[in-house]
Design goal:
2 copies of one chain form a homodimer. By secondary structure, the first copy, chain A, is of the alpha/beta class. In chain A, 41% of the residues lie in helices and 18% in strands. Chain A contains 13 helices and 14 strands. The first copy, chain A, has helices at residues 10-22, 48-57, 75-84, 93-108, 112-122, 150-156, 178-185, 201-206, 210-216, 237-243, 250-257, 274-278, 294-314, and strands at 3-7, 29-33, 39-41, 44-46, 128-131, 138-143, 146-149, 165-169, 189-192, 220-224, 227-228, 231-232, 263-267, 283-287. A 7-stranded parallel β-sheet of chain A has the order 5-2-1-9-10-13-14, sandwiched between helices. In chain A, helix 4 packs across helix 5 (112-122). The longest helix of chain A is centred in the last third of the chain and has 21 residues, at 294-314. Chain A is globular, with a radius of gyration of 18 Å. The two termini of chain A are 17 Å apart. The interface between A and B is medium-sized, with 30 and 30 residues.
Chain lengths: 315, 315
């Protein structure tokens, strides 16, 4: 059973970790990560979503913050701040190591796919973690304060600005990574993790050729709604959906994914939305979707797989 | 009274610090640093001698090791090692910050002079610290084990190999930094700090145009012998002098510098060498040259200045 998970940051990484825990053979899992949040800081290439997946699947993640490495220290950043001014983006000492080694690899001419695989291997991660593309893509957010780089909007200004529009710079000429295409081509099940549909799953789907690869894949495709009770568990998904004219609900998520996925998993608190989502032509499964523990992650992973397999049997 | 100090690593940085302490106006001091030890590691540009001067003049230096920053931690390097294999070169977390910010500046197109000045300013250093050249120069050491990069010879193999030859890759096309030339041109006193004459002061003198600038400078030029009692206080100077056929003594140092300097300061234990050194046409001053404290540094600085001024008055 080959499984592909599309993931952004914290929520996506948690469910990906659930699959790693739930699968008999974790090597059957490929995580396709969003890279449109990637940016350069202090001359280093930072891939926040890939890193969150790397740290979560390797057990290094800081469960309190959702980003970075548990117990990390901040001596390097403190000294960088002495040279370059007060930091606006937190980077721990161990986290810096990831960016240093990645940047060295990229400058040497290795692809982001190869560099990410090498980092994952060093951390003992069995599933494949592949970027959506080896080409740089940058999410830009239009706000009343002007057009902002994603990290400036998200971290620098704490996603407090109204979102008027989102676009992905470089997406038109980006190519999907071969590793992502190959994983989709041979997948039995594809899961869109509970990540932001606009700026996490959105860029992955926007890479030219990715939607076609999803359509051509023999896999059953299901998503887990990141919106629970009309709110995002983490991050700016709710404001973004609202700002872009989507309903801020599991239904709104379903409407965005309709035509691409076969079924949607929604939380119990959203059970009443099921008929409207089914009217979009999607199957619905209602369950607990909030992951508070590793057991929750594995349970939601098993539920997602069982749902997809049931749809496959029905279809 | 404008002073220029030529310095390599630990010994040179100590005396440069002495001048900073001894001068009425520390801004009258320019330290010209050796950059032939510079190398790339993990994609970062590392300038060991400039860094030792930066850390020493800012009071950050680790007095126990002679390199790096006092109290530095090693979380970044430990994690880098997890990705890239066991490190052979120690880099502390705060030290990493220096290399990250420097590398960012160089990649942006700033000169090493500009980047170094910016680092020094951020650390509150008043004297000017200028690289001998903005162009990359790399010391290579010929040994029975083959030709080694300097850091591989010095750190990686703990300078245990016999030295058969030394050369400075890139020196023929390197240009002296304008800041170094200007400082030499306007100097009243030039001091060769007690640094390795082969691989610390040697490369500075070997930059095309540097010897001419020294010759044309109106300054009185004195050196402090780094060889005391036939031994180097630190590092491989003794083995190198021996390997290259020089006498391992203050006389050997004098013979290398003869024709460039006006006088040499030697340690009391080497007083008996004075007549032979004077026979080379050099003035000699005998004093305590081992710097164990900040007071020792300032005292040797004052002694060096007084010696140079006496030579100037005599000349």
């Amino acid at each position: 059973m080959k499984l592909v998970a599309l993931a952004g940051g914290v929520g996506g990484a948690k469910l990906a970790h659930g699959f790693q825990l739930a699968l008999d053979n974790a090597a059957d899992l490929t995580v396709i990560g969003n890279t449109a949040d990637d940016f350069d800081l202090y001359g280093l290439r930072i891939c926040p979503d890939l890193d969150t997946v790397l740290y979560t699947l390797s057990g290094l993640a800081n469960p309190a913050t959702g980003w970075g490495i548990e117990g990390d220290t901040f001596a390097t950043l403190e000294m960088v701040g002495r040279y370059a001014g007060k930091p606006w983006f937190q980077l721990g000492d161990r986290d810096f190591a990831t960016h240093i080694v990645r940047t060295e690899g990229l400058r040497r001419g290795d692809s982001l796919t190869a560099v990410t695989a090498s980092l994952a291997r060093a951390l003992g991660i069995v599933p494949a973690i592949v970027p959506m593309s080896n080409d740089p893509v940058a999410t830009m957010v239009n706000t009343p304060a002007g057009r902002l780089d994603f990290q400036e909007y998200f971290v620098g200004r704490r996603h407090a600005d109204e979102v008027l529009g989102v676009h992905f710079e470089g997406i038109d000429t980006a190519e999907p990574s071969q590793a992502a295409l190959k994983a989709l081509h041979t997948a039995d099940v594809i899961v869109f993790c509970p990540s932001n549909p606009i700026v996490s799953i959105g860029p992955i789907l926007a890479v030219p050729g990715m939607r076609e690869a999803l359509k051509l894949s023999p896999a059953t495709t299901v998503a887990v709604s990141p919106i629970v009770g009309g709110q995002a568990l983490k991050g700016p998904a709710a404001q973004m959906l609202a700002g872009l004219g989507h309903e801020v609900s599991a239904y709104g998520v379903a409407a965005i994914y309709a035509g691409i996925i076969d079924g949607l998993i929604i939380d119990r608190v959203d059970a009443s939305l099921a008929p409207r989502i089914e009217a979009l032509g999607l199957q619905v499964h209602v369950t607990e979707t909030v992951m508070r523990s590793n057991d929750d992650r594995a349970e939601l992973a098993r539920t997602s797989l069982a749902f997809a397999q049931r749809l496959d049997a029905d279809g």
